[in-house]
Specification:
- By secondary structure, the chain is of the alpha/beta class.
- It has 2 domains: 258 residues, Spore Coat Polysaccharide Biosynthesis Protein SpsA, Chain A, CATH 3.90.550.10; 118 residues, no CATH class.
- Helix content is 54%, strand content 12%.
- It contains 17 helices and 10 strands.
- Helix 12 crosses helix 15, helix 14 packs antiparallel against helix 15 and helix 14 packs parallel to helix 17.
- The protein starts with 8 loop residues before the first helix and ends in a 7-residue tail after the last helix.
- The mean pLDDT is 95.
- The structure holds guanosine-5'-triphosphate and magnesium ion (MG).
- The site of magnesium ion has 4 residues, from loops.
């Protein structure tokens, strides 16, 4: 029997004592003692500075860290009530968010911002930018907009951004950025979905929230936050499980009837309003190892030969075979990649296991990232951004490929 709540008994007790808050900052964590104190202190300062007179609270939902992560939050919250403790249920960032949504509901809060616990570039203004639009009624869901180094955010750049944009027709540049703002009503909508035993309980949470907001057609705004500096990950070495969880969740959502109805009708894409003046920033450098990516592409090609023949359209499969044979990932350009992604989206219509489909796409993601790194390596931030935009346009242009593949074998509609 799945747990009906992600709140552990100590958190429920602490919330009962707190009774009410108007505004909440939620922080998910797992072994972040080195960085979370700074995040909690800045969040407290943001709440006090920008929302004086409001009842505020910080909620830290932790994955059972033994390094004193939650103690750091309590020590640094600087006069703002801090409810910090373990969540219960499947381990993962999404379960931590579930506990935060429940806390928002129990406290009767109007608005909540969530921020990652490994952030180093967070400032008090971030809290204003994420919560302010909700409080002022300008938006019901706020995504972050920040400059990330061209080798950071590769899941965002290669699939979360371009696929979300092409499917649902909205240019949400950071759909899985980790920092968000939302109202109390939307927190309840998230909670009521039957997703908490799936990859949404792990790293699928961000794309689940953003896609849910798009499907419900709530007003979305992007908050400009400057640069994102956090504990970065090397895409080849660290990002396999995260890719599977994010992409598996995208596939599970995209095949829901209400999603299909929306993406069938969406052509092109619309801008999403930005809060704050976008000023150019050059983010701190992040490393990425191309040899690891190429090696993982090759190893994945061996393991996936049969499933690729079955899942990918013939011309995509042929190009991929050529790239495998030559050991050169450049053929996995933006257009080829868009069609490969659509082949996998279409396969999810009949194949139940979306995590398995995401795993079949993973070696191609490694190849795409290797190619992308080469495409942007000599470019500045603005130049790299143009490459990501052109890849997103490839997704929009190739959408007919998805519509065709999806209809194959579908009962004819009258
Ligand atoms: N409670 C809980 N929190 C987690 C878990 N895994 C990650 N988090 C938190 O989720 C947030 C984001 O995790 P990161 O590992 O920084 O991932 P990320 O920054 O989204 O990923 P990249 O952009 O690819 O580096 C951080 O606040 C983590 O502490 C987990 O298993 N349990
Ligand atoms: Mg991080």
């Amino acid at each position: 029997m799945p747990e009906a709540t992600a709140l552990s008994a100590p958190m429920r007790d602490a919330l009962r004592k707190q009774e009410h808050a108007d505004l909440v900052v939620g922080i998910p964590s797992f072994r972040n003692a080195a960085t979370i104190g700074h995040v909690a202190r800045v969040a407290a300062e943001g709440l006090r500075t920008y929302f004086p007179g409001r009842r505020v609270a910080i909620v830290n939902a932790d994955g059972g860290s033994q390094d004193g992560t939650s103690d750091r939050v309590r020590a640094e919250a600087d006069g703002v009530p801090a409810i910090a403790g373990p969540y219960q249920g499947p381990s993962g960032k999404g379960s931590a968010f579930r506990a935060i949504f429940e806390a928002v509901r129990l406290l009767g809060a109007d608005a909540c911002a969530v921020v990652d616990s490994d952030l180093r570039s967070i400032t008090p203004e971030w809290i204003e930018r994420l919560i302010g639009p909700i409080v002022r009624g300008q938006a019901e869901y706020v995504t972050p907009l920040y400059a990330r180094h061209k080798f950071d955010g590769t899941i965002t750049n290669t699939i979360a951004y371009p696929l979300t944009r092409a499917l649902y027709g909205a240019r949400v540049r950071q759909p899985i950025g980790g920092e968000f703002g939302f109202g109390g009503a939307l927190a309840t909508v998230f909670l009521e979905q039957p997703v908490w035993e799936t990859d949404v309980a792990r790293f699928g949470i961000d794309i689940f929230m953003t896609t849910t907001a798009l499907l419900r057609q709530v007003r979305i705004a992007q908050a400009f936050l400057g640069a994102k500096i956090h504990d970065p990950k090397d895409p080849g070495a660290d990002l396999g499980p995260m890719f599977t969880q994010v992409v598996g969740t995208m596939l599970s959502l995209a095949r829901r009837p209400e999603a299909v109805a929306m993406w069938r009708g969406a052509t092109g894409s619309r801008d999403v309003p930005v809060i704050g003046d976008v000023v150019p920033v050059e983010p701190e450098a992040v490393g990425a190892s191309v040899p690891i990516l190429v090696e993982k592409f090759r190893a994945g090609a061996d393991a996936n030969r049969d499933s690729w023949r079955e899942l990918l359209s013939p011309e995509v499969a042929d190009t991929v075979s050529g790239a495998v044979a030559s050991g050169d990932p450049h053929a996995i350009n933006g257009e080829l990649w868009a069609r490969a992604v659509y082949d996998i989206v279409a396969a999810a219509r009949t194949l139940a296991d979306t995590a398995e489909l995401a795993r079949a796409l993973l070696p191609l993601y490694f190849a795409r990232v290797a190619a992308l790194i080469d495409e942007v390596k000599d470019l500045d931030h603005a130049g790299a951004e143009r490459v990501v935009e052109s890849q997103a346009l490839s997704f929009e242009r190739a959408k007919g490929h998805l519509l065709e593949r999806w209809s194959v074998g579908e009962p004819s509609r009258r």
